[in-house]
Structures are given as structure tokens and as C-alpha cells.
Amino acid sequence: MLETLNAQPADALLALIKLHNADPRPTKIDLGVGVYRTGDGDTPVFGAIKAAEQILLDTQNSKAYLGPEGDMGFVHALIPYVFGSDFDRSRVEGMQAPGGTGAVRLAVEVAARAGAKRILMGTPSWPNHAQIVSAVGLELKTFKHMTAEGTADLEALRAALADAAPGDVVLLHGCCHNPTGVDYTNAQWDEIAQMVAASGVLPLIDLAYQGLGDGMEADAYGLRKVLAAVPEALVAYSCDKNFGLYRDRVGAFYAVTSDADALAKAMANGATIARASWSMPPDHGAAAVRLILGDSALTAQWINELTAMRARMAEVRERLAAAQQIGPINMAPLGSQKGLFSMLPLSGEQIMALRERHGVYMAGSGRVNIAGLTTGNIEAFVAALKDVAG
Ligand code: PLP
Ligand code: LMR
Q1: Is the peptide bond before 281 cis (omega within 30 degrees of 0)?
Q2: What confidence score (pLDDT) does residue 325 get?
Q3: Which helix (H) or strand (E) segment is 131 a member of?
Q4: Where are the domains of the chain?
Q5: Which CATH architecture has domain 65-294?
Q6: Residue to probe by mutation, ligand 2, list 11, 13, 209, 361, most atoms within 8 Å of CB
Q7: Nearest CA to 257 among 114, 141, 138, 139?
Q8: Alpha carbon distance 389, 350 (integer Å)
Q9: For the chain, which ranges sit under pLDDT 70?
Q10: What is one Gene Ontology biological process annotated in the Swiss-Prot or TrEMBL record (predicted)?
């Protein structure tokens, strides 16, 4: 039977991890998968996480099952950070999920069970978004995320919403847009909140990089604006970047409603989907986050570590922007883009030449993880770009 399966291409981005690992050149540069790296090229475990893990080691006396919703102490501890300390807690409930990916999957499946037919989404986007929408069996309607000038394309979103039908969901990146680094401005979010409310579509906000843009509060601006304007919304959250937990798979799915019965049903459906998919989410990383957020000293340590990450990314962006113009590539916008990613307008041949001649690994889309540039190799990267595109 299994021979009847269709062949599947390997996930291009994950394949890049292996290609980079297999390259023996010591000067190779990994700008592929979205993990933060220090100026020395490391992705260390946060000190706050190490401290929380020590507490877990010393005090956790059971690993008995918790349930499909996971660690509700974790889920609730995040609420003030995501939704704001003054958010009406009766409107929101959540459950833990295996990473932001599990949270997006739950959100899309719950929307489908509620009758959603179509997801409206700006492109380019994180490639897994389209895969999840397709796996759940919903239709995807795309619009342009970015203008030719490299700003967020509000008019394209406006047109998509004007054209929306009942049963549509709009998927928005809360901050640090993947793959472009081009976020909506606060003034644009003000308009988006009104546009989404007027359209009646259900917003699904994916917040996978809170704190990696301008800070924990600043990066929640758009989400909070939209949630203040609409009766219902879904949120997919990841702690894998802002707590450096990646492989521990730490995320949360939230529903916001104006109706307690609808909220309970959203959670009950999420729990049913989780039960049939992974039964219960992995506990360890979420328990560590709960301990951090419940302890003011650990919270301060975590915020300091996150602030240092942001400062380093700002420095890398400043140095890249200082290259100004490389052939047809305008480097200046990289200075003000947000988060781990930016896109360079490179051809497939140029991306292959960067890999083969210079050991520079980046996604086929031209997306670069700017945190992959170390203190020692930014100049080499700029020189490699000049070689292939200058
Ligand atoms: N959403 C977006 C926009 C992402 O870029 C990612 C990638 O990490 C995720 C969700 C999923 O994150 P996680 O690794 O927590 O599953
Ligand atoms: C990325 O886009 O590199 C990250 O979000 C990791 C992933 O799961 O794709």
C-alpha cells in the first residue's frame, strides 16, 4: 500500500540546516532557519531558562499527565504580556500548544469547525502557513504584503477585506513579519483594526516573535488594537524565539470572544483537536516559562536577555544598512525592518553562487536571518553580496 504514496519534496528550509552542517568550510555563514545567534554565532539557552530548569529539577516531583490544555499556569501567565495587563480576562481563554506551529494548527482547525471557508493572508508569508491551511482543507486567498517601495501594503489588505465573504478569516503577523521584516506601522494598525472590524472577518493573529522587534509591549500594539475593535479573534503564540526554547516546542492558542459560551466551545473544540493530534503538549519548556513569569527576579533576567538580543540585532541591521547600495540591492531598509528576517531581491542563480562560492546559506526566497551574521563575518557577507550582485 505504501508504495502508492506520492513522493514529497523535503522542506526546503529544514533541508538547508543539513546542507549547512555538511559544508566543511570554516568560513560558512548560516542565514537560513530562524534562530537567534549571538555575536559569536551561538544559540545559548537563556540564563533565566537555566535557572527555571534548575528549580524544576529540584522541585518537580511528578511528570504525570496534565491534560490536552497543558499547563494552564503557563497559559494564564502570558495573558498580561500578550493582551495587556488591563485586558478583560473574561473575554480570553487559551491552551498550551506544541510551539507556535501547534497553535496555528489549532486556530485554523477551530476556525474550520466554526464554519470558516477561506483564509486571507498577505504573501510572502511563513511557508508553513499555507501548508497548514491546505492540510486543514481551507481555501487560501492571498494578497500582497509589501509594496514595491518595501513598505507594508495597507491598500492590498484593504482590498482583500473589502472583498471578504462571511466565513473568511484574516491571518496577520503580529510583529517581526516572516519573511520580510516589514511590519505595519502603529498608524496602519489603527486603520487595520477599524477595517477588520467593519469587514466582519475573524482575525487570526500569529505572534511568534514578541520582544524581538521593539520590545514586549511595543510588539503587541497591533494585536491589542485589533482585539479592542472586534468581538472575536484567535491568537497563535510562540515562546520559542523570545525564550529561546525552539526544540522544546512552547506555544499557546488563545480565543477571544464577547460571549462566554462561545469561548468555552472554542476551548472544548481546541481540546478535542489536541487530543486527537498530540493528546497533550510537551510540558518542560512551558513549565520553565511559567516559573520565570511567576518570579520577578527571573522575569527581569529574561527581559534583560531579550533586550540584549534586540540590541545585537539592531547593531547587525545598522551595519547591513551602512552598505547602502549593492548593485541593484538597496540595503538601507534593512536598518528599520524588524525581527530576525529581511528579504534580499536575489535571483536563484545568485543565491546558489552565494552558497557555492562563499558558503553563505539562505532560503531560496532570498530571506536572510540577520542574526546568523556574527561580529566577525558581516564584512565577509557584504563582500560576498558585492561579488554576486554588485
Ligand atoms: N509563526 C510564524 C510566523 C513563524 O515564523 C514561526 C516559526 O518559527 C511559527 C509560527 C512557529 O513557531 P514554533 O517554532 O514555535 O512552532
Ligand atoms: C523560520 O521561518 O525559519 C522559523 O520560523 C522556523 C520554522 O519553523 O520554519
Answers
A1: no
A2: 96
A3: helix 127-136
A4: 10-45+297-389, 65-294
A5: 3-Layer(aba) Sandwich (3.40)
A6: 13
A7: 114
A8: 7
A9: none
A10: L-phenylalanine biosynthetic process from chorismate via phenylpyruvate
Clarify whether 117 is annotated catalytic. Answer: no
pLDDT digits (tens, 9 = 90+) for 126-159: 999 999 999 999 999 999 999 988 899 999 999 9
| Res 334: pLDDT | 97
pLDDT in tens, 365-379: 999 999 999 999 999
Q: What is the pLDDT of residue 390?
A: 86
What are the cell numbers at 362? Answer: 539562505
Mutate to test the pocket of ligand 2, among 20, 36, 126 (most ligand atoms within 8 A of CB): 126
What is the per-residue burial (b if ≥16 Cβ within 10 Å, else e) of 202-238? bbbbbbbbbbbbbebeebbbbbbbbbebbebbbbbbb
Nearest to 121 by CA among 154, 151, 138, 143: 143
Say if CB 30 and CB 366 are below 8 A apart.
Answer: no
Q: Which three cell numbers stand for residue 258?
A: 464577547
Residues 6+ apart with CB under 8 A from 235: 82, 94, 103, 107, 204, 205, 206, 207, 223, 253, 254, 255, 256
10-45+297-389: what fold? Aspartate Aminotransferase, domain 1 (3.90.1150)
Query: For residues 168 and 284, what is the distance between their CA atoms, to the nearest angstrom?
Result: 36
Distance CA(279)–CA(276), nearest Å, equals 6
Which residue's C-alpha comes closest to atom 6 of ligand 2? 34
243 three-state secondary structure: coil
